[in-house]
Design a protein that fits this description.
mainly beta, single chain, 117 residues, Jelly Rolls, globular
Amino acid sequence: MAKTSLLTVARRELLRATYADSGRSTSVLFDVDDVDVRQSVLAMRAGTALLGYELGVAGWTIQVLQGCLHLYLGRLVTVGYPGDLLSGSLDGLRLVADENCVVLVTTSRGLISPPAG
C-alpha cells in the first residue's frame, strides 16, 4: 500500500509549472507494468495550451483538482471546474488552462497493443 497526498503533489506541480518554460509540469503517481491503469498529476499555468494532446491509451478520465480549463475533443468543447470528472475515448485531446489549474489524469491502456519489435 502506498499513500500520497494529492494536494501536496498538486501544489508542487503547480509551482513547477509556474516557472517552467512550457507552463506545464507533470508527475506520475501510479504506473505498474502489469496493471492497466496509470495516474498522473498535470499542472498548467494560466493561458497554457496542451495542443494535440494524445494520451496514447484506450481511454481517460480527468478530474479537475484546482482551477479552470477548457477541454476540446474533436468538435466537443467543455469547461472543467474543481470537482468535475470528465472522461472520453481518444480522437485527440486539447487542454487550455483558463487559470492556473491542476488535474488528475487516469488512463487505461486496455485496447492498445504493445509496439512491435
